[in-house]
Amino acid sequence: MNETIQTILNRRSVRQFTQEKIAKSDLELIVDCALHAPSAMKSDYWHFTVISNDELIKELVGIMQDLLCKPEYDMYKPQALIIPSTKRDYRLGVDDNACALENIFLAAKSLGIGSVWINQLRDFNDADALRAFLDKLMVPKDHIVYGIAALGYPKNDLSPIKREGTYSYFE
Ligand SMILES: Cc1cc2nc3c(=O)[nH]c(=O)nc-3n(C[C@H](O)[C@H](O)[C@H](O)COP(=O)(O)O)c2cc1C
């Protein structure tokens, strides 16, 4: 089996990370892979905000704790976040976002880095605290966020799980 297929079949969502930092060059490589994801009509409206700074990650976690009314929420204590954003009025933004995230997850996996989709921000794009945070990171004002990626080195090995989905095949 080739390495690409192995990466796809072995990828799992990782929710427990070690404290090892991810090299900037790896994060940049992962973002480059996101930029190579398909986007509808090559729209390229997306922007990727990478955060590897602990204080900024904690600040966002704190904002989400308040917005979710869940003081225990920790976003799995990641070492880095990649926040794709796209134009608010762009109809296919959510589809482009999913393609970019999958490239991020697979690229990360191929580098031995764990990752997981974080879906909580999308419901709070107009919350003042989240918007102020995105403004601070220079996310374009006409952009919104759907899913984001939390990343870090996995604490444990996760084995591939049996998939229950079905398919039909006509020859
Ligand atoms: C649209 C979408 C939203 C998701 N949101 C979250 C999330 O907010 N938090 C989380 O821990 N996992 C999230 N996940 C990850 C799924 O729970 C995970 O992919 C699924 O359980 C299958 O496990 P696997 O990724 O290990 O194959 C999301 C996945 C997708 C596709």
CATH topology (fold) name: NADH Oxidase
Overall structural domain count? 1
The low-pLDDT segments are: none
**Number of H- or I-type helical stretches:** 5
Q: How many β-strand stretches?
A: 5
Structure in words:
- The chain is α+β, with helices and mostly antiparallel strands and 171 residues long.
- The protein has one domain: NADH Oxidase.
- Helix 2 (24-35) packs across helix 4.
- It is built from 5 helices and 5 strands, in the order ααβαβαβαββ.
- The structure holds flavin mononucleotide.
- Flavin mononucleotide binds at residues 12-13, 15, 116-120, 147.
Main traits of this protein?
NADH Oxidase; 171 residues; single chain; alpha+beta; binds flavin mononucleotide; 5-stranded antiparallel sheet; 5 helices
Q: Can you describe this structure in just a few lines?
A:
By secondary structure, the protein is α+β, with helices and mostly antiparallel strands. It has one domain: 3-Layer(aba) Sandwich (NADH Oxidase), CATH 3.40.109. The protein has five helices and five strands; from the N terminus they run ααβαβαβαββ.
Question: What's the structural blueprint in terms of helices and strands?
Answer:
Elements: H1 3-10, H2 24-35, E1 47-51, H3 54-68, E2 80-87, H4 93-110, E3 114-118, H5 128-136, E4 143-145, E5 148-152
Bound molecules: flavin mononucleotide.
Flavin mononucleotide is lined by residues 12-13, 15, 116-120, 147.
